[in-house]
Amino acid sequence: MRQYKSHADQELVLLMQSGDERVLQEIYDRYWDKMLAVAYNRVGNQEEAEECVQDVFYKLWKLRSDFSLSKNDLSNYLARAIRNQAFNILERRYRQRLKSENYMPETNVNHVSPEHQLIVRELQQRIDTSIKSLPPQCQIVFKLSRQDGLSNKEIAQKLNLSENTIKSHLKKANKDIQGDIGLVITLAFALSATINAS
Questions:
Q1: Under a CB-based contact definition with an 8 Å cutoff, are residues 12 and 75 in contact?
Q2: Which of 40, 53, 65, 147 is 20–30 Å from 23 (CA)?
Q3: Same domain for 52 and 120?
Q4: Global pTM?
Q5: Highest mean pLDDT among 74-83, 104-113, 120-129
Q6: Which residue has the higher pLDDT, 10 or 140?
Q7: Is 123 a member of any domain?
Q8: Do the domain assignments include residue 109?
Q9: Averaged pLDDT of the chain
């Protein structure tokens, strides 16, 4: 019987492509404990952690004929795979909680509703339109300041203008843009109040 304990990971990956299940067993023996520890730290449940590791090995075996590593680092691949699988389990657990009767999900400050996404897009469009409607020189000054991060002094030197002229252009740009987006911001606050009240 061929022994694989002395083989490097890269050799095991190549041998696994031939379909020898003993190769998978060797990889399993080498990495099971580490993978289980990572999975358990993420999902906090022994049974789900074991399921997580088994799923990763099942997928590895299923993909064996096309599986390859660009670098001799199977451990890094398995670590990433186990993290992704753990994430899938956590996501599934969350969906099950949402489906359970009388479950009210906690407010997730990171969740962005479609309504808020719409407002953000509208706000960005308004800002872009407002910038484009500025007088040409005012538009250049605003972009150099806000997009390129140049100071008033640097812009003045670049455009051969006085710093006071730069300040005047920025003041006008800010005033015009804030006026144009005021309606969208008002809408955003109104929608937020409606969502929080519901």
A1: no
A2: 40
A3: no
A4: 0.46
A5: 74-83
A6: 140
A7: yes
A8: no
A9: 75
Kindly state the tokens that stand for 57: 């090995």
Q: Encode the chain in three state secondary structure.
A: CCCCCCCCHHHHHHHHCCCCHHHHHHHHHHHHHHHHHHHHHHHCCHHHHHHHHHHHHHHHHHCCCCCCCCCCCHHHHHHHHHHHHHHHHHHHHHHHHHHCCCCCCCCCCCCCCHHHHHHHHHHHHHHHHHHHCCCHHHHHHHHHHHCCCCCHHHHHHHHCCCHHHHHHHHHHHHHHHHHHHHHHHHHHHHHHHHHHHC
- If asked whether residues 134 and 95 sit together in one domain, one would say no
Q: Looking at residue 109, what is its pLDDT?
A: 47
Q: Which domain holds residue 146?
A: 114-197
Query: What pLDDT was estimated at residue 45?
Result: 82
CATH number of the structural domain spanning residue 59: 1.10.1740.10
State residue 196's pLDDT score.
Answer: 47
Q: What is the DSSP letter of 103?
A: -
Number of domains forming the structure of the chain: 2
**Cβ–Cβ under 8 Å, residues 137 and 158:** no
